[in-house]
Amino acid sequence: MAFGPEEQYVRHLGIYTAIFNLDNYLGLQNTGRLYATPGKAANVFTDRGNTEARAAFHFTADHLEYDRRDPASHKRIITERFAGEGWEVPRLLKERDAAGEFFFDANAQVVMDSWSAGRVVLLGDAGYCAGPTSGRGTSQVLIGAYLLAGELATRDGDHTAAFAAYEQQLRPYVAEHQALGHEGAERFFMPAPTQEVLDMLAANAPENTRAEPVRLPDYTPAPPPDRRRSLRTGTRPHGRRCRRSARADAAAQKPAAGSSPAPNWAGWQPALPPRFPQRPCTRSVLRAAPTTHIRFHPYQTNRTERAPQ
């Protein structure tokens, strides 16, 4: 509602995917199998410590019209697209009908000029989805959440400045991942890679890794406004007296020339009744390493087998 129809921002990548859970009837151990034909692919891989498996169907198509809330129509689309295919596809179609979890959607990206409108801000796929073919969706939302929370905590209630700083820091990172998403979609149905290529990916060879590290600031949020007021007046917001440490009082007695002393909120302590122990107040700090390098590591399996057609 704040940004308008989603059709303005969603960019279809030309691939549809269905994924569901099933028993590990193939007896796979930390591995997966792939069946591929031009414009179509089916794969099975292990999950939950090899006790279960996941299967996925992928196919190329232009924009399809279907009810997003009707799983039966999604399954009909998959049946029509994969009718007559070999390997384990007929068995997988039967397993799909009995699956407890089933998901179907287009592979798409979300591209927006701004991620905020008024007091509303978008995070993760809602504002800057790079597409499943990028392999970076989880990284983006975790890093985005850290930056957004940090900026909100340090901007003293100025959400406009916080949203702008969050977007400025994250946009280059997102732009690179969305480019990777486009490239991944173009290569998605290429012939299966050789074992040499898979070994290089698993080793995270430098020549295969393009992503630049993202640097995360070390955020130290400001104290809440009501606590700052209590430091200046010596009272809590509800009127009780509070006690300051000797260190804070000494600092307050030596203001800089021509300026009033800044409140030392870290030294503030509440005047609790005698039955409660007196402990120094602590402050909540959203903290990370001053420079955190995050690099994408390709998904690793023991081996990938190309299934016979």
Structure description:
The protein is an alpha+beta fold and about 300 residues long. The protein has two domains: about 10-110, 2-Layer Sandwich (D-Amino Acid Oxidase, Chain A, domain 2), CATH 3.30.9; about 110-220 and about 285-300, no CATH class. The protein has helices at about 70-80, 90-100, 125-130, 135-155, 160-185, 195-200, 225-235, 245-250; strands at about 10-25, 30-35, 40-45, 50-60, 100-110, 115, 120, 240-245, 270, 305. The strands form three sheets. Strands 5-1-4-3-2-10 form a six-stranded mixed beta sheet, sandwiched between helices. Strands 6-7 form a two-stranded antiparallel sheet. A hairpin with a 2-residue loop joins strand 2 and strand 3. It is elongated.
Mean of pLDDT: 78
* Helix residue percentage: 25-40%
Radius of gyration: 27 Å
- The strands making up the biggest β-sheet line up spatially as 5-1-4-3-2-10
Note the overall shape.
elongated
| Whole-number tally of structural domains | 2
- How many β-strands, per DSSP? 10
How does the helix and strand content classify structurally? alpha+beta
Distance between the termini: 48 Å
List the helices and strands in order: EEEEHHEEEHHHHHEHEE
Stretches where pLDDT is under 50 for at least 5 consecutive residues are 267-305
Beta-strand content bin:
15-25%
Helix tally equals 8
User: How would you characterize the largest beta sheet?
Assistant: 6 strands, mixed
